[in-house]
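chain below, 238 aa
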Amino acid sequence: MIARRMFLVIFAFFSINVADARGSLSQDLESRVVKLFDGMDSLPVTISRDGGNIQVRTRQSGDHMITFSEAKETNLHPDRFKTFLQRFQHDFPKVNKMVQSVKSLEVDRRNGGREGVKSVLKFPFPLSDRVMIHWKYLRLGRQPNEHMLYLSEEANEELLAKHHTASEKKKYVLGRTFLCAYWIRPRYDNKGSVIGSKIQYLFSGDTGGSVPKKIQDLMGPKAALESVQELIKHVEKK
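prediction:
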């Protein structure tokens, strides 16, 4: 009886610590997303559209590129983007032409409902297509009228073991997602009423394999631009 009680106490202690670790991972990833966006204005503009309202910026981090895109002002209320974020697996391929599909794998209810997802990316011939397996975190109502979604491969070992199939290993190159995020924030008038949104997107990862730098420099900023431009068009249609 004493041994059983000891086992239950140890098991409960272990479970609490695992949950705390997962919770702290989510918070750490979110802090990194915010820090990256806070520093983007210091980077040179790579692409500018809509009279400078939509901009793409890039930054080298070691041997990979981080791409940022931003729409400084839209007339769409932040809540208009909630359906897209909730239906990310279904709607993101409509927004980013590089993304062939995003498939839900499993939900980790022990960690605030984070969701394992598998993304397949289309690459131009003769390059092989890519597959990425990562966790998705959804933060609707992070602040009043503010929403965030972010993806990361961190702590995805079990996902890879269960969902990276033998046929995919032959067909695709495994890419990596360090961080990918959307941040939708409100714009206010001088009376404190919401009059629109500011939209930000970033991607930090390694597409794997051997991709010529010229192609990386072309595809990365173009995909980031589409991820904001096409999102606005997608939501305006709804």
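Residues 6-21 have pLDDT under 50 and may be disordered. Residues 2-38 form the longest helix (37 residues).
thats it, cya
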